[in-house]
């Protein structure tokens, strides 16, 4: 019996020692898990703060975008109103202008010695041309060559070609 008690005591000691080892290993594991949990909580807090910042920035951008869109819509509305005003003005001016006839160039004086436009004397070096439209006598400086048709005075040319200055 004493031997059996000694064997049982030895087995119990060994079992107690193993239990202590297991408890110590579990304590270390618990410490590691607590450390991991702490890091995970810190990461979670950082992610939550980052998410809050991103949401705040998104709301600010959305508010800015909404204000800009409203401003642009108002600008478009104003531009459409101004366009209508300009169209009305154009129509009113068109109606005023429509009744006005283009003036016919005044007949040139039939004085053979003077240009009908600049009144310069025709001499040996200043040639005289007949305007093919108003039949006035004009000098080289006051006339325009229109090709095969001959020359015409500047006034008649400008009335026929208003886009040319």
Automatic annotation (TrEMBL):
Gene3D superfamilies: Zinc/RING finger domain, C3HC4 (zinc finger) (3.30.40.10). The keyword Coiled coil applies. Keywords: Coiled coil, Metal-binding, Zinc, Zinc-finger. One of its GO terms (biological process) is autophagosome assembly. The keyword Ligase does not apply. One of its GO terms (cellular component) is autophagosome. GO terms for molecular function: phosphatidylinositol-3-phosphate binding; zinc ion binding. Residues 16-43 form a coiled coil. Residues 109-161 form the FYVE-type domain. This is RUFY4 protein. It comes from Herpetotheres cachinnans (Laughing falcon). The gene is Rufy4_1.
């Amino acid at each position: 019996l004493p031997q059996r008690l000694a064997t049982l005591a030895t087995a119990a000691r060994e079992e107690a020692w193993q239990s202590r080892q297991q408890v110590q290993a579990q304590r270390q594991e618990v410490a590691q898990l607590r450390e991991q949990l702490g890091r995970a909580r810190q990461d979670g807090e950082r992610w939550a703060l980052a998410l809050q910042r991103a949401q705040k920035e998104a709301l600010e951008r959305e508010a800015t975008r909404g204000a800009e869109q409203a401003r642009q819509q108002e600008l478009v509305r104003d531009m459409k109103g101004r366009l209508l005003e300009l169209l009305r003005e154009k129509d009113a001016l068109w109606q005023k202008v429509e009744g006005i006839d283009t003036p016919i160039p005044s007949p040139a004086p039939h004085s053979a010695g003077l240009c009908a436009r600049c009144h310069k004397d025709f001499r040996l070096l200043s040639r005289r041309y007949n305007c093919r439209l108003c039949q006035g006598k004009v000098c080289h400086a006051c006339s325009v060559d229109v090709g095969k048709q001959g020359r015409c005075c500047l006034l008649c040319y400008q009335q026929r070609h208003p886009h040319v200055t």
